[in-house]
Amino acid sequence: MVKKTRLNSRHHEMGANMAEFGGYEMPLWYKTGAKDEHLAVLRAAGIFDTSHMAFVELRGGDSLALLQKTFSKDLNACIGPNKLPIADKRCVYGVFLNEEGHVIDDAIVYKFADDNYSIVVNAGMGKGIADHLDNYKDGLDVKITDYSDNLGKFDVQGPLSGLILKSVINNPKEVFDVFPYFSHKGHFDKSLVNSAEVTLKNSNIPILLSRTGYTGEFGFEIFVSLEFFEEVWDLFVEAGRIYELTPCGLASRDSLRAGACLPLSHQDIGHWPYLNHPWEFTLPFTEDKKGFAKEFVGSSALLNSDYNYHTYAFAGSDLRKVNAEEAVVVDENDNEIGKVLTCATDVGADWADGKIFSITSPPDSGKPSDFRPKGIRCGFVRVDRKLNIGDRVYLKAKKRKLDAVIVNDVRPHRTARKKITSMP
What is the CB neighbour count within 10 angstroms for residue 409? Predict the structure, then answer.
């Protein structure tokens, strides 16, 4: 049976085009349309219902030990250029692998205290990750709790996200004072001391506020107890009206993340060795890249793998797409060399003078004064050989054959990592 989030009726009321995704009925786009929803996140702000995602909590003195054993990132050396240990109020992106080195799911790990961590994973993956952790916790002091379908979550993404947050939370000056990318404040659990850190005006409802997201742009993820979820969503929607806050569906979420070179789990990463891809920063390689700084589930399989496929980001010359499920990658002689994993259109970016620009690219970037993007085809391919940045391949499906240039990035000048003090 297809599940529904607590906001399902609101999506229908707003005229959303709904479809099944990850076992849930979710909005693909609203009356605004996917293109304008994508552009809203680049120009102002968008709000996404992401309560289909799962939240798994670890409590106990051996929580870190269990994560070090199962999570790809070395949590003792993962923060900043100096590779500092994860600290309270920080979070880290990585993956969970099986013994063969294949991706079970990607995830963000949050640290609240030495004995309290949480993991955010994709829709329908809460139980799978909780069970996976349970399989490796023998003799460890860890209690694992899967919050799937028992927690509200939504994202506010875009350059005006901070203004919206400031208008609805208590003590915004203190909350926003020091708030780097991939950090978090507060908690939705009223029983925890830090739940008082971020509360909403008038109601004092506590939220977990995280400077993360899946768009590549400045923004936040908000977690709230299910009993307050609809009330808090409505509060943000109303407060965001003067900032042109736009409800956004999965279509714009997909095009935004593709332009930001972010993978979709079980599509761009999945049931093959987690090697030779743009996200190797999630693996704890030694400096010579011949080994890992720690052992974890799947690490031995990766180090002993003879896997020769490579995953690359690409950008095309226009906005036309192919259906990734049926498209193959061919070389200039029409020889098949791989598969298309993702093919989307970033409608906020385009080529000019041989470079890619975004509508958010600053004037001193070289962006033409009359820049009006039509959109750019982008995504990921997996091929049976090593390629170089700038190499050209082709995406082929039925009678359509489209060009693709191998790139190390697509939409430039993204705002996700900007200092919070530099944003409105």
Answer: 16
What CA–CA distance (Å, rounded) separates 280 from 295? 16
pLDDT of residue 192: 86
The token duo for 12 is 């229908």
Q: For the segment 146-188, what is each residue's pLDDT rounded down to a tens digit? A: 999 999 999 999 999 999 999 999 999 999 999 999 999 999 9
> Could you give the 3-state DSSP secondary structure of residue 257?
helix
C-alpha span between 373 and 360 (Å, rounded): 11
Question: In this structure, what token pair is assigned to residue 204?
Answer: 């004092």
Determine the Cα–Cα distance for residues 310 and 39; give it in Å rounded to an integer. 31
| Cα–Cα–Cα angle for 148, 153, 157, rounded to 5 degrees | 145
CATH assignment of 54-146, among 3.30.70.1400, 3.40.50.300, 3.40.710.10, 3.90.1150.10: 3.30.70.1400
The rounded distance, in Å, linking the Cα atoms of 1 and 80 is 43
Query: Do 156 and 211 contact (CB within 8 A), yes or no?
Result: no
What pLDDT, in 10s, does the model give residues 82-100?
Answer: 999 999 999 999 999 999 9
What strands, in cross-sheet order, belong to the sheet with 54-59? 91-97, 103-113, 116-121, 54-59, 143-146
Q: Could you tell me which of 143, 124, 68 has the C-alpha nearest to residue 297?
A: 68
